[in-house]
Predict the structure of Betaine-aldehyde dehydrogenase.
Amino acid sequence: MNVQPKASHFVNGNWMEDTSGTALDVVNPATGAVIARLHEATPAVIEAALAGARAAQGAWAALKPIERGRILRRAADLIRADGDRLARLETMDTGKPLQETLVADWPSGADALEYFGGLVPSVTGETIPLGGDFAYTLREALGVCVGIGAWNYPSQIACWKSAPALAMGNAMVFKPSEVTPLGALELAQIFMQAGLPAGLFNVVQGRGAVGAALIADARVAKVSLTGSVPTGRKVYAAAAAGVRHVTMELGGKSPLIIFDDADLDSAVGAAMMANFYSAGQVCSNGTRVFVQSGILPAFLDRLTARAERIVLGDPMDMATQMGPLVSIAQAEKVMGFVDRAVAQGARLVTGGKGHGLFVEPTVFAGVTDDMEIAREEVFGPVMAVLEFSDEDEVVSRSNHTDFGLAAGVFTADLTRAHRVIGALQAGTCWINTYNLTPVEMPFGGVKLSGVGRENGKAALDYYSQIKSVYVGMGPVDAPY
Ligand SMILES: NC(=O)c1ccc[n+]([C@@H]2O[C@H](COP(=O)([O-])OP(=O)(O)OC[C@H]3O[C@@H](n4cnc5c(N)ncnc54)[C@H](O)[C@@H]3O)[C@@H](O)[C@H]2O)c1
């Protein structure tokens, strides 16, 4: 399958190339082969993208919302009609197994386009009676929005950001992760086929400096980043200089709490989904698995048996359940965490070996709160199991982190489930399941894990601003 795009960038409705930009080779993580050669955006490309977005946005915002929504819903249909090819491309770009990319990545992106396309015509302002006079509010677009993506769900991220942005009448300049640049270019083609006017969705490639150049531009009203906390700090600070709106979807070290009375198989299944899906490269992963003492031996037995059956291999093979990590740098980083966890006294229950970009599903037990493996985001298939005895203790230990992206609770006692969720400092929570992120549900973090929400009705608030209009109905009574 030839995946070399016609050019590196998609700007103002056309492919755009500038070979004076630094080379950007796209590597298939499973084979090591260079599958596409791109160039980073130069100042000329960035200027063309921002100018095109600025020029197109006003007329787009002036359309009836139902007309904008129709184009997004058409884009969703086009994605679904081409689902197999798009999934293969995503697998070649990321290394994630086809059995995942067929159901999770582009399909979730299509859901977002359909959802926000259908939702936006129902967005209204309010009228405020003031005793004769009255006020009303309008929800207006922000203008030009910049989206910056991570490499773990590149196409889903591009859709999750562009769908609410475009629905509300904004234009977007999207910079994919330099590690996975291909999916966003496909999305740009899909939007054009669906009838999106030129200039409203632009893709520019590049490393962090290209993202930084976009954010610094005075034409930009908002930046939405999916990335790590260190990058989030930089992007947030740069956006603050121009007082721009932000959405920050950052990292996590989320707790998954399993009480003695939980259904064992469901809890084990969820813990695996929370650590091994996408080879552990999921921001909301429940990487601190707190297990109550009474169920711990049975939990570890069942978990080990199931983890050792996970099929690692060629991600294009439908039998493969776990592919390589996205890059050799990421694999080396993950193996560094594994080695240090052993050195710090965590008990390796299963896995622990790396084979190039492939890392075995790994479980550590006997993990204590102070170990690095319990404090830092690993972003690989590495689960840390921590023992606890009572509810107050586990809530306090769960919250003992600067992150706050997600959390999960497994128990048969529903009162306890809601009580514990109420006490956890996390933006996205699950009871008796884990890592399900339907587009209807707001998603995002608290504390260092982020600001703002993607998905759900809430996301539209983050791509719009309120205009208040006071209407005077009588003579003006001036004191002078
Ligand atoms: N909360 C979420 O929704 C979510 C989802 C997926 C991934 N993540 C997080 O993303 C991280 C993994 O992704 P990554 O390694 O690609 O993240 P990263 O922070 O290294 O990069 C993210 C993006 O930011 C860009 N960037 C880097 N420096 C920049 C700068 N100074 N200005 C503007 N842009 C800049 C990168 O080029 C990339 O496109 C993990 O921490 C993970 O938890 C969060």
Observations:
- The first helix runs from residue 43 to 62.
